[in-house]
């Protein structure tokens, strides 16, 4: 499929077509996503938890995001690639945010950045957009500031909190964001926000009425099993399959079963190239 443009994201919303987004953090997974019909790859700072083994997304650095964005860009030439600005790279000043986002675009080749936060972050989003950097917003449960929210909880459950989230979404749209991730909010609120905006909403734990959906690829594939949130659907159990394969390999080497003759070379084999 041909790479979707930023204006086409908005066009899809108008046409009632749902956007599909998935995370990737390396070349092989980026290639697999690129072969699918999924429109957008997010190089998420979930990288910190599902790939780098941190306990939260807070420690992820700009260099780590750039390091992992580069192979995704190489592996997915036909997919729109958005990357998270990590914590601490856009909360100091607008100038600092622009400088850091510039590095992400210039050094890795991604096309847009995602930043967490609503009304408070809107002036920074405006500054980034005015500097020529496309921005995806992210409201609701914002993992980088989960401690301030009282942990990993559903957001917008009181009338005041719901009203604030709607205002957050409107502020991000007015600031020039091209789409907004809505994470862990009740179905009805996500629907209200979605119908109140002309830019697409992309939900995770936000029900079926968003304009698109996103999942972490390790969650979808059943690889990351430290915990499985309610909003995750495991489309495959890859973790157990990998565990079984590693067990078979270990046993066969121990037993002298692998490598067999079909995986070994004789003196008279033609050595035209090993593959
Ligand atoms: O980092 C991430 O993977 C994300 C998505 C879950 C939206 O921000
Ligand atoms: Na993220």
UniProtKB/TrEMBL annotation:
Active-site residue numbers: 183
Cofactor(s) required, per the database record: Mg(2+)
The UniProt record lists the keyword Acyltransferase: no
GO cellular component: a single term: cytoplasm
Source organism superkingdom: Bacteria
Xref: SUPFAM superfamilies: Phosphoenolpyruvate/pyruvate domain
Compartment(s) where it occurs, according to its Swiss-Prot or TrEMBL record: Cytoplasm
Pathway in which this enzyme or protein is active: Cofactor biosynthesis; (R)-pantothenate biosynthesis; (R)-pantoate from 3-methyl-2-oxobutanoate: step 1/2
Transmembrane recorded as keyword: no
Cofactor: binding details: Binds 1 Mg(2+) ion per subunit.
E.C. no: 2.1.2.11
Family: Belongs to the PanB family.
Protein's job: Catalyzes the reversible reaction in which hydroxymethyl group from 5,10-methylenetetrahydrofolate is transferred onto alpha-ketoisovalerate to form ketopantoate.
Protein name: 3-methyl-2-oxobutanoate hydroxymethyltransferase
Organism: Heliomicrobium undosum
Organism lineage: Bacteria, Bacillati, Bacillota, Clostridia, Eubacteriales
